[in-house]
From TrEMBL:
<dbReference type="GO" id="GO:0008483">
    <property type="term" value="F:transaminase activity"/>
</dbReference>
<protein>
    <recommendedName>
        <fullName>Alanine--glyoxylate aminotransferase 2-like</fullName>
    </recommendedName>
</protein>
<dbReference type="InterPro" id="IPR005814">
    <property type="entry name" value="Aminotrans_3"/>
</dbReference>
<dbReference type="GO" id="GO:0030170">
    <property type="term" value="F:pyridoxal phosphate binding"/>
</dbReference>
<dbReference type="Pfam" id="PF00202">
    <property type="entry name" value="Aminotran_3"/>
</dbReference>
<dbReference type="InterPro" id="IPR015424">
    <property type="entry name" value="PyrdxlP-dep_Trfase"/>
</dbReference>
<dbReference type="InterPro" id="IPR049704">
    <property type="entry name" value="Aminotrans_3_PPA_site"/>
</dbReference>
<dbReference type="GO" id="GO:0005739">
    <property type="term" value="C:mitochondrion"/>
</dbReference>
<dbReference type="InterPro" id="IPR015421">
    <property type="entry name" value="PyrdxlP-dep_Trfase_major"/>
</dbReference>
<keyword id="KW-0663">Pyridoxal phosphate</keyword>
<comment type="similarity">
    <text>Belongs to the class-III pyridoxal-phosphate-dependent aminotransferase family.</text>
</comment>
<dbReference type="InterPro" id="IPR015422">
    <property type="entry name" value="PyrdxlP-dep_Trfase_small"/>
</dbReference>
């Protein structure tokens, strides 16, 4: 009863009626997922997958308390926020309580993209300026306004051109970025300052062209750029530059918020800063579309003073708010932040041990249940192991473990599981990854292994890449 038609039919209908730009995971052999429980998802044949990617199903897929809250409120009323409703104000009060002092005014919307779009609108109205500083490889949403500040999409061959009011700062990536360990022989604080000074330079550039800076927007830990943990002092020095130039600071917490980092509810807190505007989404509804912008009374007043009403049909409807309140209940009651800290530290330590065991593991980084493992073909040169990362993802799927990859070279394995992830799940993930990486280590030394490892790939170009790697390895032998 979990599917209306056989998988082959679903594929046919999807190809016919869904825009081809909407891409599937595992394109040549997609998964049909029909239900989820906690950190597990099930396909149409009942096969169970360990979900290590889904930061939206924050408190676990289909958490009964969240499902119940949505079902109850749906059976009472779902309407717009022009009527008073307790769920809306309770949610605002609870969210604000988790934020530092000045952030006390909320706007509710339906997605991370909408939240960032509204944040930009607030910043423009408040500063009366237009120029935005964003980080290279950043992604802030699919709306036209957000694609323009998302080098993740701007950098693609078919992507739109970068508008002149957008300034791109280097990613504060101390492994692969402009300033790195140990090449630049600097302390973490110094590297943080050097990266922040890059933003300072862009502030002066924007001032010199007579327009000035409106806003700096960044994820507090950049997930789309490849699970980047900025060096200490990066955001505090950056915010200083931006504020001195008269701009406001927007923290995009759409992926990394709601306790994922383990030590704090919000990832910006790990950098000791207080943004002017915070955007939250994804985990907030555990799969239901709800997001928010939280800002200061001054910025909210500038917006209200325009006299233009802000109306959003679904933003802050009672069903979405009841669901978001239930998500907050679960985070508190099941102490999921502490769990992210405990399980995340275990996962990180176990991944760290892989670095010493495998030729492909170049860097391991993370905070809480936000972890990245960067694969390289040469540890000295830090050459991205893009084809190998793709191979690892496919092999893990065969082992019924779902992970993804990211970063400008698509060579960073990305773990951001539901927060109910356990130490046993982390062990299973790392033990399996250990085995899969060992298979690839083998490609260096054994002819026979080379043949075996090349065959499972489903993509011709990757076969070619691996084959050429294999030939090089054979030459070396
Ligand atoms: N910001 C970040 C950091 C994101 O990762 C995303 C989605 N991947 C968005 C914004 C946009 O959110 P949505 O897809 O809900 O519009």
């Amino acid at each position: 009863y979990l599917q209306s038609m056989p998988k082959s039919e679903t594929i046919k209908l999807r190809e016919k009626h869904i825009g081809a730009a909407c891409q599937l995971f595992f394109r040549s052999s997609p998964l049909k997922i029909v239900r989820g429980i906690a950190q597990f998802m099930y396909d149409e044949s009942g096969e169970r997958y360990l979900d290590c990617i889904n930061n939206v199903a924050h408190v676990g897929h289909c958490h009964p308390h969240v499902v119940e809250a949505g079902r109850n409120q749906m059976s009472l009323i779902s309407t717009n926020n022009r009527y008073l409703h307790d769920e809306l104000v309770i949610l605002a009060k609870r969210l604000v309580r988790t934020m530092p002092g000045p952030l006390s005014v909320c706007f509710f919307v339906n997605s991370g993209s909408e939240a960032n779009d509204l944040a930009l609108r607030l910043a423009r109205i408040h500063t009366k300026r237009k120029d935005v500083i964003t980080l290279d490889h950043a992604y802030h949403g699919h709306l036209t306004s957000m694609i323009e500040v998302s080098p993740y999409k701007l950098n693609l061959p078919g992507g739109p051109e970068k508008p002149e009011w957008v300034h791109v700062a280097p990613v504060p990536d101390v492994y692969r970025g402009k300033y790195t360990y140990p090449k630049d022989s600097k302390s973490e604080e110094e590297l943080g300052k050097m990266y922040a000074d890059e933003v300072g330079k862009l502030c002066r550039l924007a001032e010199s062209n007579g327009r000035g800076v409106c806003a700096f927007i960044a994820e507090s830990l950049q997930s789309c750029g490849g699970q980047i943990i900025p060096p200490h002092g990066y955001l505090s020095n950056t915010y200083k530059h931006v504020r001195e130039a008269g701009g406001v600071c927007i923290a995009d917490e759409v992926q990394v918020g709601f306790g994922r980092v383990g030590t704090h509810m919000w990832a910006f807190e790990t950098q000791d800063v207080v943004p002017d505007i915070v955007t939250v989404g994804k985990p907030m509804g555990n799969g239901h579309p709800v997001a928010a912008v939280i800002t200061t009374p001054e910025i909210a007043k500038s917006f209200a003073d325009t006299g233009v009403e802000y109306f959003n049909t679904y933003g802050g409807n009672p069903v979405s708010c009841a669901i978001a309140n239930a998500v907050l209940d679960v985070i508190e009651e099941e102490r999921l932040m502490e769990r992210a800290f405990r399980v995340g530290n275990h996962l990180l330590a176990r991944c760290e041990s892989l670095k010493h065991r495998h030729r492909l593991v170049g860097d391991v980084r993370g905070r809480g249940l936000f972890v990245g493992v960067e694969l390289v073909t040469d540890k000295e040169k830090r050459t991205p192991a893009t084809a190998e990362a793709k191979h690892v993802i496919n092999r893990m799927r065969e082992e019924k473990i779902l992970i993804s990859r990211d970063g400008p070279d698509s060579n960073v394995l990305k773990f951001k599981p539901p927060m109910v992830f356990s130490t046993q799940d982390a062990d299973r993930l790392v033990d399996t990854l250990d085995r899969v990486l060992a298979e690839l280590d083998g490609t260096r030394i054994s002819n026979m292994t080379l043949e075996v490892r090349v065959t499972p790939l489903d993509d011709t170009s990757d076969k070619d890449v691996l084959r050429s790697n294999a030939q090089q390895a054979m030459k070396a032998i």
